[in-house]
Design goal:
The structure holds 2 protein chains of 2 kinds.
Chain A: E1 6-10, E2 17-21, H1 29-38, E3 42-46, E4 50-55, E5 58-63, E6 68-70, H2 76-93
Antiparallel strand pairs in A: 1-2, 2-6, 3-4, 4-5, 5-6
Helix pairs in contact in A: 1-2
Chain B: E1 13-15, E2 20-22, H1 24-41, E3 51-54, H2 59-72, E4 78-84, H3 91-105, E5 108-113, H4 114-118, H5 122-131, H6 138-156, E6 161-163, H7 168-180, H8 184-188, E7 193-194, E8 205-206, H9 214-223, H10 242-255, H11 259-280, E9 284-285, E10 292-293, H12 301-309
Parallel strand pairs in B: 3-4, 3-6, 4-5, 6-8
Antiparallel strand pairs in B: 1-2, 7-8, 9-10
Helix pairs in contact in B: 2-9, 6-12, 7-10, 7-11
Classes of the chains: A alpha+beta, B alpha/beta.
């Protein structure tokens, strides 16, 4: 499964996956954090340049540029599922 | 809404190991107090001492430099040392950011390269390893050469200490790696002040972020607009044995918050016992470069590694 509009690759440590938007983005992280919390996704850190969130126990960094890093996950499909869930929320809330 | 434990405002960071929930201002205060406590409790920095900071351009070393400059710029001279291992499209980009930070914070810096110092770059070493796996891993070459060069430059600059960006996650991983390798000597060398005991040959390496989790460093750097290179990891990172330990430890931490601190506490309790192991360690002089080494071989690790790839 490829996520439309995103470039997907295994991170260099080979312990996670990166999802990089093909088009330049500038997310409003505060808006996104509020939306994620309303959907019961734990936002562990809301900082000016990135959010650190937990999706079903998996750590994800969401950068203001729109890049996502799904950490410590072996399954490509599992990483894609988590990324797709987050991207859907990003698009819906217009962050 | 999760509230800050200190002021009741909206929490911007949750630290499950506490657990603590903090707003930005209280997190920054908490973070800085913890680093100051690490420095004072372990006697990492003496007043007036010239401090070198090994600066890669990544978040850990950039944050270390930022903090030491913030805390000690009036009492101590801080100098950044940057090492270019010769990994194109990675280290050159990271060091560009490192230089920008030094200029912004008005910190003197020196930049050295593997090419000039050793006559070989990490890319060239990697190509040799690709042809002959028996040479060892890329990371083992890089680590040995980096530590040697950092020490050499710090000595030339008459620095009393070398600060590195190692954080709690790095230390917990290293402790476990040495236990899994059954290597008590290397384990004994870990700690807030690392190395093989006091000799004039070695500038002690200190780790101000030794008791600070990586996630906290990422957040602190972002809250303080510390620019750090985060686009790409090292292209050889996948080869590092450390990845397995990082990944598994993170899973333990997720299930049982505070695991990394507990590993560090265990090590701190063991350290006095390990000190005996460290004292047994005999130091020798390398037959080629005359530098001090703990290796029983005729040559130090730097000369041994370079000999392998320069054949």
């Amino acid at each position: 499964m490829e996520i439309l509009g995103y470039l997907e690759r295994l991170c260099r440590g080979r312990t996670g996956y990166e999802f990089i938007p093909k088009r330049k983005n500038a997310l409003n992280l505060d808006v996104l954090a509020n939306n994620l919390e309303s959907k019961n996704i734990v936002v562990e850190a809301n900082t000016p340049h990135l959010l650190i969130v937990k999706v079903k126990g998996t750590g994800v960094s969401v950068f203001a540029s729109g890049k996502l890093i799904v950490k410590d996950i072996e399954s490509k499909e599992g990483a894609e599922k988590i990324a797709a869930e987050l991207i859907k929320i990003i698009e819906e809330c217009g962050a | 809404m999760v509230k800050c434990n200190r002021c009741g405002k909206k929490a911007e960071i949750l630290l499950p190991y506490g657990p603590h929930n903090f707003c930005r201002a209280h997190f920054i205060g908490f973070f800085e107090r913890r680093v100051k406590r690490t420095i004072s409790r372990h006697g990492l920095i003496r007043r007036g001492e010239r401090i070198a900071v090994g600066l890669s351009g990544g978040k850990d070393s950039s944050t270390t430099l930022f903090l030491l400059n913030k805390f000690f710029s009036k009492s101590n001279e801080i100098i950044a040392i940057m090492l270019d291992e010769g990994i194109p499209k990675y280290r050159d980009r990271a060091l560009k950011i490192a230089e920008e930070n030094c200029k912004k914070w008005k910190i003197h810096y020196v930049r050295k390269s593997f090419r000039k110092e050793f006559g070989i770059t990490m890319m060239q070493i990697m190509r040799k390893i690709a042809k002959d796996e028996n040479l060892g891993s890329t990371c083992s070459f890089c680590g040995v050469l980096r530590r040697y060069l950092l020490n050499k430059v710090a000595k030339e600059l008459k620095c009393g200490k070398i600060a590195t960006g190692h954080n709690l996650d790095d230390e917990a991983q290293s402790i476990l790696m040495n236990i899994f390798d059954n290597d008590p000597k290397r384990l004994a060398r870990l700690g807030a002040i690392a190395g093989i005991g006091e000799t004039a040959e070695f500038v002690p390496r200190i780790k101000p972020l030794y008791e600070t989790p990586e996630k906290d460093v990422i957040a602190y750097a972002s809250f303080n607009n510390i620019k750090a290179y985060s686009e790409e990891c090292c292209p050889f990172k996948w080869q590092a044995k450390r990845n397995l330990f990082r990944s598994e430890l993170d899973k333990f931490e997720e299930k049982s918050p505070g695991t990394k601190y507990k590993i560090l506490s265990f090590f701190k309790n063991m350290k006095p016992l390990l000190a005996a192991e460290q004292k047994k360690e005999k130091l020798h002089k390398c037959a080629k470069c005359r530098s001090i080494t703990s290796e029983k071989n005729k040559y130090c690790m730097v000369c041994l590694q370079l000999k392998k790839v320069k054949k």
